[in-house]
UniProtKB/TrEMBL annotation:
Pfam family, one: MgtC
Origin organism lineage: Bacteria, Pseudomonadati, Pseudomonadota, Betaproteobacteria, Burkholderiales
Membrane-protein topology: Multi-pass membrane protein
Protein name: Protein MgtC
MgtC/SapB/SrpB/YhiD N-terminal domain: residues covered: 32-156
Residues spanning the signal sequence: none
InterPro entries, alphabetized: MgtC/SapB/SrpB/YhiD_fam, MgtC_SapB_SrpB_YhiD_N
PANTHER family found in the cross-reference section: MAGNESIUM TRANSPORTER YHID-RELATED (PTHR33778:SF1), PROTEIN MGTC (PTHR33778)
Length: 160
């Protein structure tokens, strides 16, 4: 019976061995935390104006996108094959964003395009973080915040 428990313990250790050493753990934690933090920034901006996709949605989209590229890279998938994963993520998030777009009863008035675009961009930010391109992810998120917040203010001023 003691041999069984030993085998079970060894199997459990093998199943959790994808994060082998401290550098692997640090790399994965950093990439995922960057993805979540940047998704939170973008999501907070959308939530602050009452958009349909807010903080949690953007955080989850960014984290999920990071995972979709991080896991194949950890498994040793070549970058050419990761491009197929990217295509799937891009298309899948496009469907998610489509749910945020609503056509009102008024003639030609559509709402939610900016929210859909921000969800799509958040996925790209998560992908960048997941692939180890944290600086690119941060720069992209900062540019998105500028577009979403500063341009919204200038748009309001033009209307008034």
């Amino acid at each position: 019976m003691n041999v069984w428990w030993h085998e079970i313990w060894v199997t459990i250790q093998q199943e959790f061995s994808d994060l082998g050493d401290v550098s692997d753990i640090t790399r994965v934690v950093l990439r995922l935390l960057v993805a979540v933090a940047l998704g939170a920034l973008l999501g907070y901006e959308r939530e602050s104006i009452g958009a349909s996709a807010g903080l949690r949605t953007h955080m989850l989209v960014s984290l999920g996108s990071a995972l979709f590229v991080l896991i194949p890279l950890q498994a040793g998938m070549v970058i050419a094959d990761v491009s197929r994963v990217l295509q799937g993520v891009t298309a899948g998030v496009g469907f998610l964003g489509a749910g945020a777009i609503l056509k009102s009863q008024k003639e030609g008035e559509i709402h939610g395009l900016t929210t859909a675009a921000s969800v799509w961009l958040t996925a790209a930010v998560g992908i960048a973080a997941g692939m180890g391109r944290e600086a690119t992810a941060v720069l992209s998120a900062m540019l998105a915040l500028i577009i979403l917040s500063l341009l919204r203010r200038s748009e309001r001023k033009r209307r008034d």
